[in-house]
Amino acid sequence: MNQFTYALPNFAELGKKYSxxxxxxxxxxSHDCKTKLQDVLSHAKSLGIGVAVTDHNDIRGSxxxxxxxxxxxxxxxxxxxxxxxxxxxxxxxxxxxxNFYQKYVKKNLKYHKRFRFNKTSLxxxxxxxxxxxxxxxxxxxxxFTVQPKKSFYFLNSKKRKELLSEFVAxxxxxxxxxxxxxxxxxxxxxxxxxxxxxxxxxxxxxxxxNAVTCSEGRDIHSFLDSIRKKKNYIVGQESTLAAxxxxxxxxxxxxxx
Length: 257
Ligand SMILES: [Fe+2]
Known about the structure:
five-stranded mixed beta sheet; 36% helix
């Protein structure tokens, strides 16, 4: 059964029973982030949590993170479709992540001039087909964010029921979102019988761990399987308005460089 708590995570307590992972974090390998990967890894170790480095359409940070032997790392990426929707993908192995990037992302990378974001020329259907091909756990990132990235209306349309059914999970707790958006995501996920994921979507170090996904699974395989089986637990809370403003300013500055 899905479980969730909207409160600041207590890592020491959670860690007694669960593997605790921030499933959505950005590093210097994202076009909009200046945070050093090594600082993210060191901070995760000091907090006693794991991390999925989910850079925008890039896997360099995730691959370097996976070299850490004393940190629980889930191979991941945040892929942007040609219609600007973000999809989080988590892989059972480093090899699957590399295959996904080489086969699907690398040759379809585009630079989004208007928003200074990179994206791919892949449709959501193509991304989800590729995810199935490599047995990845897919999660709809922040479905109630602002346009053009808001994916709820697109995926909830009657004619896309089959496409939606192919997603494993919905990100129901993203620390960059407003409470209302997260609750809407949770309601949608529960109504559609989806798995649940949570992550801070942090672009600044201090965000790490604001929202986490917990599982009794102690390795990548059992951790990801618990999301599929809806046996994981999500905990976290939205970052403060001040923290969001500082983060947005940092993203703006990085995008101008
Ligand atoms: Fe993100």
